[in-house]
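Quick entry, no commentary yet.
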Amino acid sequence: MEHGVAHEAFDAGEARYELVVSVDARRSGQYNDAEKPRMRQRIYRVLESALAQAGVVRDAVHMEDRGDGVLMSVPGRIAVSRLLGLWMVEVHENLREENGSLLVPLGLRVAMHVGPVRHDSRGISGRAVDLTCRLADSSVARELLDREQADLVLAVSDSLYADVVQAGGKFIDPARFAPARLALKEGAVTAWFHLPGRPAPDTGALGPEEPGDGGVAGTGGVAAGVSAGAGGAAGAGGAAVSPADPPPGAVDGGDPDSEGYEDDEDGDASVRYAAQGDLSVHQHNVYQQPVHIGRVTGAGPRKD
């Protein structure tokens, strides 16, 4: 049967609430043409073996090939907790076994979300599918996989965390998930991240989502969710203010979100700036049109 899934009848206008799973390989572009088929074989071996080990019938699961990954949807008659719990454990163990003989280990980013999914003869679609794919492709998922030197990172939507993960269950420990705010093309969302076999990851130490990762544009076309890094401050006249050696009058203590504070690149709200005149912090900004930064003095013409 097409796509290996036994759905009753394809109706593109009828949405069904299903678990959507997106699986992406780490740095798939670095595999050459001879290596990619073997990489793809490993991904399918890991995922399909885990389905059998978790007692999920393969033909009940829709699977689409994505070249460097797989897009899946699981019907509502199969418990979501089965995939979040036992299946993820088996995926992780299978992946570790595959990587035991590899010089360059295979890394997987997995994302899950439950929402309305529409099926047609070519595959699945819907906002639930879009969100799941964006979670798997987020910079937080990528950075966690690299920073922690992990084999696997799991990202789940905020609603899936609240509905299933938070209640816990067999092989599901909510204390091992950590939230992060993502700036996606559709808007800012919260997602929860988990590294199987490890404590909750420190998502606060990760850099913010970049505009190239689907950042949300704020007023004037400047990407939202971008923080200022150390050494990125300039006082009036363009003089840099060092956060490591705050000048006299710098605020000491208090609310990190209050005036005079900026988050540094590691997410640590400990960088302080003080200026008698104007203070500007500019880093990782994307300007969609000419902008003016700083004060305009005198009667001369303004220069952008």
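second:
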Amino acid sequence: MKLGVSCNLHFQLDAPTVLILMLRPLNGVQQWITKSSYVVEPDVPIIESKDNYGNSCQRLVAPPGEFIIHTSAEVITTEYIDSAPGAHFIEIQNLPYQILPYLLPSRYCESDRFGDLAREIVSDALPGYDQVGKITDWVRRSIQYIPGSSDLPLSAIEVHNHGYGVCRDLAQLAIALCRSISIPARLVVGYLYQLEPMDLHAWFEAYIGDRWYAFDATQGDLRGGRVIIAFGRDAADVSIYHQFGLGCILKGMDVQVNLLNKSL
């Protein structure tokens, strides 16, 4: 399927402010960018680079006053998400080197605190994909998904204690549970077709059977129509913008996902 996606940000700045942005969708992760646009008003120089996870980052100095970022892309992506019940657990000594960081506790995914709970959740599941499925189902049943319920990232422990959260929060709890039983897991941020209410979305991937598979604790049935912007260990790695300095206010964000062509 072909989707048209866009994210527009409207900032109000009191002083020159450095911004590091992550707004350009990735090419080649079951998706292909056929057209894209990236415009800032007023126009300023932008430095493009890749972070440690291969995500596309843009660095700039925004001037005082109103600063607006318009981004859009046309993307060919899959209508269906791959699943593999029974896919096997990969022993740590056999994991590719670049996958190892996704086994460790991180700022918002305190996997070293969830071992007992995770083992209880997956006690009757085959090691690997089926365990991640059990974890995803448990998070969906146990943590209430409330869009807009938190502005700041919560850690997995905080989400577990609160019993509710946004998509990012549910994904990070699931990631912590997966890592606690030695299954690599990472956070994904991007667009999701027909998401209600429309916004950027977060889900997670687990490394099983020699590849990454997507899971989403906010949905009963995992559906496609996803456009990936970034991967990372947790929300600290995949924020769509970081500001450095005082007096920077995000006054508005508009996200759109439209179907352009379903028969490709």
